[in-house]
Amino acid sequence: MKASIMVIVVTIISIFYVVKSWYLSTFAHFINDWYNIEVFLRRYIVNYLLNLYFSYTD
């Protein structure tokens, strides 16, 4: 039973990696833009939350 679960997991992971590599090679420029936007938003949101937190702790 455990062996079949491992096979399924490995298959899903390998399919994911194949799809991901194809996706990256096809949409690399889109991903770069989105990644930059995502990083910017994440930093902005984290800074915003930290500012809120510190303004409440004063």
Automatic annotation (TrEMBL):
<keyword id="KW-0472">Membrane</keyword>
<keyword id="KW-0812">Transmembrane</keyword>
<feature type="transmembrane region" description="Helical">
    <location>
        <begin position="5"/>
        <end position="24"/>
    </location>
</feature>
<keyword id="KW-1133">Transmembrane helix</keyword>
<protein>
    <submittedName>
        <fullName>Uncharacterized protein</fullName>
    </submittedName>
</protein>
